[in-house]
């Protein structure tokens, strides 16, 4: 497995307002609601999770623990993790500082370190707290804990939700979730669509974006199924989930959601 460190200057659209406005219109069609219906002041994230993180062993790769990665100054990538197995999609870049790490709090850590872990956990349990990478880095520095130490037992930590790098806005979270780059020249037209799929995105105004989204709007796709029921239920209940896709044979999930404090 080859892991590549790349600079983390997050991409911004380079083709002017037409690119962003076209994306907003298209994503409004995809979601069934204009993006203006969502909280524009909130932070949104796209997460990659599921079995494939574990089977590739990327979830425990030491690259996640590099100080520059945990600080958000660099992103990391893995050639085995893809949105879709098609030529043309940009490489997935992950932000370790805002990804979720699960820690085995039963390991031989300082008591104060364990207490601080539980205090900042976002999910999980007291035994297996899940914290953001940036918080983990802060606590490691405060308590002198080294997760790369050979004295630590295996599986003391792992990444459970790998955050795909984006700028925190909803439109950018949806952009990286649907495999788009920085402009119109990054679009990859989907060659395999049916009438129902085409009808779902017929109202997308830009032809190139419409053709690209053909691979991301089919709820019955065997490659990347769009989980319409989940997102509609979340919206009805006021939940954080915005959109979700299930990868081939349920091996991975791509989730766009509002970030909870």
Structural overview:
An eight-stranded antiparallel sheet has the order 5-6-4-7-2-10-9-8. Strands 1-3 form a two-stranded antiparallel ribbon. The chain has nine helices and ten strands. The chain is elongated. The N terminus is likely disordered. Helix 4 packs antiparallel against helix 5. It has two domains: 96 residues, no CATH class; 121 residues, no CATH class. Helix content is 29%, strand content 19%. The chain has 261 residues and is α+β, with helices and mostly antiparallel strands.
Summed up, the helix count is: 9
Low-confidence segments, given as residue ranges, are 1-16
Q: Mean pLDDT, nearest integer? A: 90
The largest sheet, given as strand count, sense and whether it forms a barrel, is: 8 strands, antiparallel
The count of domains is 2
Percent strand: 15-25%
Q: Give the ordered list of helices and strands.
A: EHEHHEEHEEHEHHHEHEE
Output the structural class: alpha+beta
The coarse silhouette is elongated
**Using DSSP, what is the number of strands?**
10
* Helix content bin: 25-40%
* Order of strands across the main sheet: 5-6-4-7-2-10-9-8
Q: Could you tell me how far the N terminus lies from the C terminus, measured between alpha carbons in angstroms?
A: 34 Å
What's the alpha carbon Rg, rounded to whole Å? 19 Å
Task: Give the SSE layout.
Layout: E1 3-7, H1 17-31, E2 44-49, H2 51-55, H3 67-70, E3 74-78, E4 100-103, H4 111-120, E5 123-124, E6 129-132, H5 133-143, E7 157-164, H6 170-177, H7 195-200, H8 207-213, E8 224-226, H9 228-237, E9 241-247, E10 253-258
Antiparallel strand pairs: 1-3, 2-7, 2-10, 4-6, 4-7, 5-6, 8-9, 9-10
Helix pairs in contact: 4-5
